[in-house]
Amino acid sequence: MDKKSSESYGSNQKIRIQSYLPFKLVNFFDSRTSRTRFLILERTTNTPVKAASVIEEHLQHKHDSQNSVKTHLSHLLYLYTWADEHGYDLDTWLLTGEALSNPQIRSFGSWLKSYIGGNGSTLSHTRKKTFNATISYCCQTSMWCVSQFARLESSNTQRALDIAAIKDAQESMWKSVKLLVKDDDAAPDMTEEEIRTVEQFLKPQNRATKLNEQIVYRDYLIWRLVIEFGMRIGEILALRLEDCPTRNSPYFRIIRIEQRGPDYRDPRKNPPRPKTRSRDLGILLRNSAFPVLTNDFITEHRFVWKEAKGRKIKQFLLPHNFLIIAESGDPLSISSVEDIAKTIRENTGVDFHWHLARHAFFNRAYAAITQIQDKDQKAAKIQDLVVYGGWSSEKSLEIYTRRARKERARLALNFWQTGESSWTALD
C-alpha cells in the first residue's frame, strides 16, 4: 500500500481522549427506521468518512443493540487517526478491500499502545483490555471489507478460497499484536460498612431538610434498585411505569429496547441502551424497600411544577412514561445519574460508582450459592443467577467466582439458598 503523501506526522505521546481526536463520532435519529444512526466525521470540516458510513450500515443490520454499533465505530476512530497521522488513505483501502500489511498492523499497534498509555511504557490492566478491544474491532472491520470489496481476478470458487486465505492471514496478524491480559481480576466489592454508609447518606429522612424531596426520593430509589436487584444503571434509566411491580405482578420487568415495539420513543439525546437480556426480577429481601418505595415515588414525587392561574401546581401526568426523572420532568440523563454517584463519593468517602453496587449484590448472591452442598441444586441456582443478572452464559460469573475464592468470609445473601433473607446494612 502506498501513502497519500511522503509526509509522516508521527504520534503524540501524551494521553488524549477521543474528544481530541481529529475524527469524531456523531449520532442522529432516523425516523424511517426508528433507530439511532452514526457518522464518523473529520472534526475540522465535518466531512463524513465514506467507508465508515458503509460499515455503519452493515453494523446496523448485524446488531439489534445500537450501543454495539456505537462501540464498534468508536474504536475505529483510533484507526482513522493513526492512518491520518501517517498519511495513509484508509478510506480507499477499506472500500477496495485492500488489507493492511503486517508492518502496518504492527505500526498501528505500537501507535495505539503509546496513544492509550501516554508517556508510560506499561499499560494498566484496564487499558490493556481497551487496547485489545480496539485491535479486535479493527480486525473485524478489515476482514469484512476484504470479504465485500476485494478485487480478485479469479473464478467464484477460487475467489472464495482466496478471500478465506486473506482473512485467515489478517486475523493472525491482528491477533499477534494483542497484549497478554491475565484473567485474574475479581469483581470489585463494597464492604458492609460502605453499604451502610451510602444507605444512611441517601435515606430521605437524612437529606430532605437540605434538598428538594423529589431529588431525595429519586436518588434513594435508584440506589435501592441497584443494591437490592443488581440492576445496571442503564436498565434503571430505561424503566417505565408499566415495568414496575403491581399487586398482580410483584416484580420489575426488564425489557430489551429492541423488544419494546415500533412505537417506543426515548426523548433523551443519548438514551440508555442497556446490553441486557429481558427478565423479571422479583422482590427477594425480607426487609426490602419495595414495592412501597416505587409506589410512593410514583404517587407523591414523580411530578413537575406548572404555573396555573398564578400559582404553582403539581403535574403528575408527564409526556413520557419513564420512571426516573429530572426536576424538569424529563427522563433523567446518563450524565445526571453519574453526577449523583459523584455526590455520593464526595459526601461518604466511599469510592462509589453505580456498577460497584451491582457487583456488591452479585458478589454476595454468588457467595451464598457456593455454600449449597447439593450439586444439582447449586447448578440450578447458578442458572437462576445468570438469568437474574441478564447474562447469556455462566462465563459472566467468573469475576464473582474469583472474588468468592479470595474472600470466603464475605457475607452471603442467603435468599439464594432459602428464599428469604434480610440485609442488615440496608435497615
UniProtKB/TrEMBL annotation:
InterPro entries: DNA_brk_join_enz (IPR011010), Integrase-like_cat_sf (IPR013762), Integrase_catalytic (IPR002104), Tyrosine_recombinase_XerCD (IPR050090). It comes from the Bacteria. Keywords: DNA integration, DNA recombination, DNA-binding. SUPFAM superfamilies: DNA breaking-rejoining enzymes. The keyword Nucleotide-binding does not apply. Signal peptide: none annotated. Residues 186-414 form the Tyr recombinase domain. GO terms for molecular function: DNA binding. It holds the Pfam family Phage_integrase. One of its GO terms (biological process) is DNA integration. Belongs to the 'phage' integrase family. This is Tyr recombinase domain-containing protein. It comes from Marinobacter nauticus (Marinobacter hydrocarbonoclasticus). The lineage of its organism: Bacteria, Pseudomonadati, Pseudomonadota, Gammaproteobacteria, Pseudomonadales.
